[in-house]
Amino acid sequence: MRSLLADSRFIRPAIDDWPATAETSGAPGLVTMMELDGPRHLALRQALAAPFSVRSVRRKRPVMRATADGLLAELAASGPPGDLVGSFCEPFPLRVMCDLVGIPFEDRAFFLPLADDALGALITLEEGRRAAHVLRAYMTELLERLRRAPGRGILSQLLRTQGDGRLDEEAVLAFGLSMLVAGYRTTTMFLANAVLVLLAEPDRYAQLLRDRSALPVAVEELLRFLPVQNGVVVLQARQDITLHGHTIRTGEAVMPVLAAANRDEHVFGEPDRLCLDRADNPHLAFGRGQHNCIAAHLARTQLNVALEALLDRFPGLRLTGQPPTWDDSSPIRSPLSLPVTW
To answer: Taking the model in full, what pTM does it have?
Structure first.
């Protein structure tokens, strides 16, 4: 799996444009950083290396913690009980992303449903394509606004790089669409699932309460263990390829499942057991190769900050007994609500 994800003989088609049809051929799809390839992709990753570096993310940690503390203070003032998804797991990653990237938080009522519909292209392709078209138009208009009145976010930085000739419009647009579709949603879903699995067996939450220094290792194990994305990655062959004795023709696809790789018994001892102190943990939650998640440091930091803030504010946090609600039609398994008390 690791070598497959890094194999340059495969490309990733746009999620709303595969399989290609005569109707969609040539039309702009939902091209994110995952689908960019070649020099354009390399130039964009080089431009993003500094803002997503370990040092840069570390400097933003106090602001993230203040954001988390503020949201949890509002939750504490309104309860108990409370819904941890609506009050914290949803807004925390979204606020961090909007502040970092330069996407107006006040536009969320417009772009959040569209982003979810675009991800829903995995189920309803036509609706996903319509949403992708509107999202692309929104991001194009936002970039025009930022050209006229630059901000401090990464989008404004990329526009300056584009002005120097090191990036083109499509690369900047792809980054913006990446942030709208995946820049917060995966963290939201993972955080909700992580809290649920920790509270489902209270000894797990108590283990982290006793030793906060164990959080980084625990986060890595949660990343491995929780199959937030139950779908597949589509890798399309650029050429005829022989793989494990099978011939894959040009244009055909291979569909690896990262969640399955993270439970590989040949790599992980007792792979179906959540072991919060697992030391050797080469999981693939952030992918591998040239398209590995450039925001991996940011995601890890957000998850550590969020769980640390929860432990500090609510040492007695527990489930109410009222079951979480789920969207059973989605390939992405994450609670829509998480009733808790403290």
So the answer is: 0.89
